[in-house]
Amino acid sequence: MSTLNNLKSIALAGFITVGLLIQAAPSHAAGSETLTVAGGCFWCVEADFEKVKGVKEAVSGFAGGKTANPTYKQVTSGGTGHYEAVQITFDPGVVSAGQLLDMFFRSVDPTDAGGQFCDRGPSYRTAIFATGDQKAAAEQAKAKAQADLGQKIVTPVLGATKFFAADASHQDYAKGKKIVITRFGPKTKAKAYKAYRNACGRDQRVKELWGSAAPFAG
Of residues 41, 44, 118, 200, which has the active-site annotation? Predict the structure, then answer.
């Protein structure tokens, strides 16, 4: 009889463990949200937001266009309607969408409607893609940024749209070790990224606009 009771206890413990695991899965999913923004070169936006505490992942890609599964060449050549964008996955218990949006505005030039820094054209414009609570947070962050900056902000808050991840060669570019040929000569992707970012004047312009409020400009 005691053996039977022991078996029942073991079985019960097993069912409880399985139940806890099943309950834990939705809980983990509920601990993540995504925010999609366009801030010019997606390598830079991705690299910036991966540094933020509470951000789990930042993925470079495209949003806002009409072409399914666009390539980098198609988007930068024009005609697809897409922006270079980054989808940020974050833990709202650590950092809120509102905080990320405040950082976003202060990491770009939201007064420029023609592109960002040295990158010109429609695919390099700024935008926020959001609905519901995130859209309200985006409008609030935009109003605050405009008041702080004292200049008209042209970054639109657009509806949520399908996000297409760019191919693997564009992910984590700022950390890449592969050698690429650039106008600065052969360099690892990481060094090429740093040379590009400096030559493009991104941090210089952001500091000029936002001063000490710029969260990422070195």
Answer: 41
